[in-house]
Design goal:
Elements: E1 5-7, H1 12-17, E2 26-29, H2 33-40, E3 48-51, E4 62-64, E5 70-73, H3 78-83, H4 85-90, H5 93-99, H6 104-109, H7 112-117, H8 125-131, E6 135-139, E7 144-148, E8 153-155, E9 158-159, E10 166-172, E11 179-185, E12 196-206, E13 209-218, E14 225-226, H9 228-234, H10 241-253, H11 265-284
Parallel strand pairs: 1-3, 2-3
Antiparallel strand pairs: 4-5, 5-10, 6-7, 6-10, 8-9, 11-12, 12-13, 13-14
Length: about 280
């Protein structure tokens, strides 16, 4: 491995100041579960790593908002989110969903901010958080901005984050009675990388009618995407079998599917056709 500098700032602001806007070889490291694999494979060769291990402790905390929202620090381990009584009470979908996000050894180390910033379209957390309507607070050298999770991604392993910007926290808006579900399809074990994952959030107009919908898929295309046409089709609909069949056909026509080690584009299209209806039914339960 090529030698590189290692620095451990004591604050998030200091960490940002140590990043180089013009040098992608200078990178922040949180848990490092994905970054270290890239380094071992020679895909990423750093000149400097800025460790976030010693920044302010509140970035490792989960806080409830008075309105039912949840603020999750970027340095919160995935396992802590899985075990948080406050998070699970406010967003029950998190508990089972996060248990399929790799194995417990990885979840003990991987951080929420890193999982969102990595840009791999196969990651589980981005479509789950995007379907819940989450935003991230991003800190740069001169300003802080908020970005919807689905808008973070520009392409394969590409985000809209600048080289000297860091995610500080993720904000999940209150459910307010919305119905949610997350489904993941793998070709091997349940905690493996997905061939397809789907996040659903349904705001109900009444007991039998969908008001508005958020439908987000990952692993199917080069980035996490919302299925806008499917969402419009579901809005105001009564989710009977005929309606779900139309929605499934619509969903299968939206992404530009990619083939990879986890499945061909044709296979992923069929997975989405089948699993969209299943995810909606799961949310309606």
């Amino acid at each position: 491995m090529v030698p590189f500098d290692w620095v451990e700032p004591g604050s998030l602001r200091e960490a940002v100041s140590l990043l180089d806007p013009d040098d992608p070889a200078v990178r922040a490291i949180a848990g490092g579960t994905a970054l270290m694999l890239m380094m071992k494979a020679g895909v990423f060769v750093p000149s400097r790593l800025v460790s976030l291990a010693k920044i302010e402790p509140h970035y490792s905390a989960i806080r409830e908002g008075g309105d039912g929202s949840l603020r999750i620090g970027a340095m919160v381990p995935l396992a802590s989110l899985e075990r948080s009584p406050e998070a699970i009470a406010a967003f029950p979908v998190l508990k089972n969903a996060i248990r399929t996000l790799s194995n417990i050894r990885v979840r003990n180390v991987a951080r929420v901010g890193g999982a969102l910033a990595h840009g791999d379209p196969h990651m589980d957390l981005p479509p789950l958080f995007a379907s819940l309507g989450a935003r991230v607070s991003v800190v740069g050298p001169n300003a802080t901005r908020e970005i919807a999770v689905e808008d973070l991604y520009a392409g394969y392993y590409q985000t809209v984050l600048k080289n000297n910007e860091l995610i500080a926290e993720a904000i999940l808006p209150p459910l307010n009675g919305a119905r949610t579900a997350y489904m993941k399809v793998t070709s091997r074990s349940a905690d493996d990388w997905p061939a397809l994952n789907i996040g659903i959030r349904l705001e109900m107009a009444d007991a039998n009618t969908i008001g508005t919908a958020r439908v987000v898929v990952g692993a199917a295309a080069e980035k996490v995407i919302r299925l806008a046409a499917t969402e419009r089709l579901l809005a105001g609909a009564v989710p009977n079998e005929a309606m779900l069949s139309r929605a499934s056909e619509c969903a299968a026509s939206e992404p530009r599917f990619i083939s990879d080690a986890h499945g061909s584009a044709v296979y992923k299209r069929e997975l989405l056709r089948v699993y969209l209806a299943r995810a909606i039914k799961e949310a309606l339960k």
